[in-house]
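Worked example

This section walks through a single chain of length 525. The input is the sequence exactly as stored; nothing has been trimmed or padded.
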Amino acid sequence: MAAVVLAATRLLRGSACWGRSRSRFAPPAYRQFSSGGACPSVPLSSPLPGVPKPVFATVDRQEKFETRVTTLDNGLRVASQNKFGQFCTVGILINSGSRYEAKYLSGIAHFLEKLAFSSTARFDSRDEILLTLEKHGGICDCQTSRDTTMYAVSADSRGLDTVVGLLADVVLHPRLTDEEIEMTRMAVQFELEDLNMRPDPEPLLTEMIHEAAYRGNTVGLRRFCPAENIARIDRELLHSYLRNYYTPDRMVLAGVGVEHELLVACAEKHLLGARPAWGDAVAVDVDQSVAQYTGGIVKLERDMANVSLGPTPIPELTHIMVALESCSFLEGDFIPFAVLNTMMGGGGSFSAGGPGKGMFSRLYLHVLNRHHWMYSATSYHHSYEDTGLLCIHASADPRQVREMVEVVTKEFTLMAGAVDAVELERAKTQLMSMLMMNLESRPVIFEDVGRQVLATRSRKLPHELCTLISDVKPEDVKRVASKMLRGKPAVAALGDLAGLPAYEHIQAALSSKDGRLPRTYRLFR
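Given that input, the structure is written out below as tokens.
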């Protein structure tokens, strides 16, 4: 062993000596175009001698965030935005979702989400669809919200015709076999059980707050299929719903990373004049209801002590969500509300990070930094075509539910107060930053293009939105907050609710100047 070490030491010494001998007798060797001394006298402001003049890639007019829209003869809209890259994201967005199920069994949209990309008239199974996409490096997904159903595929741009043909087949010609429907029933049942067992209650609370805010109408209808409806949804019922809502005038074929003319040609080939599996559309039973905000409270008593397993279980918490009606995304006040939501910010008490994560937002500074017993406080803004909700979700120990509710009501009343200029600028900068960073992703651009064209038949470009955000003034934020506070609250409560104040007293606190609950309900007088 000693001999090996000695030999290695000699080898290293020899290499060092050899390097010194070269530097003594030979001129130094410089790499061409290196900054390490080949041109020591050239300043950084001047081009290096001998380096060829750079040729920069030029961007055509479509690369400048421009979105092109074409409407086919059957009413279907084709929207695209060109983007450099080998891959594209293409999908069909449909004006369909749980808000349109007032005349149907609740849960149809949830079923259709799980049935997506199953067997069709051309493809005998889901596996065959996936193998077809695999030839073009593609992946697929389907997502359903309260007002939109989205079928999307990301694949190589050279397979665009195949992708559009596959999407048309999946949307218009699903087979909906008995076996597939039965498998979907099992998937929906599992998702409902998971929803009730998961440690993070935010999806369940979101359902509850919408139910409280819009009692029995539109966006207040359940997004997840109720357990009692799982066995009742069959092919006939699904076809009845599809016949009314899966019509060309309620669809947008959106694509990012594709040539517009090529996408239109594919749409005309596969989607123009196509007869769906459920027959010709009649669309006589389409729900045109406008959301009616009602306010109210939805409570769910539950033991939250055993939501997690393991040696370090999550502490038992009570979760509260308080919301007020804001506005739709079509109104001019949508941008001030978005800035207000960013200004409130929030998160968990154990979040790491700095100013970039919103650590200077109001819910961090006023709530989490001042009340050590608060586990989380987060602001959310849900906006739809005809309404919107601004919510604050908070969680704490069940013994401090009353204090937690009062902290939340105080923050709501402070929204209508003075707005610091530095605070507002920080919120606007953060909102613009999040907007632009999210739009770096091709699937996000696709969803933005599709949703905007589906709702407004056009698209506001990112620089237009940034201009609107920059123009928000402190008085705009104060005005929309004051208007919002004049409405009735919506409240969702989950967990041990023994200390929950009455709904009337939460409403009274939001109507007061300081946001305090009535003194008769104080623990200490």
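What to look for: The CA atoms of residues 222 and 506 lie 25 Å apart.
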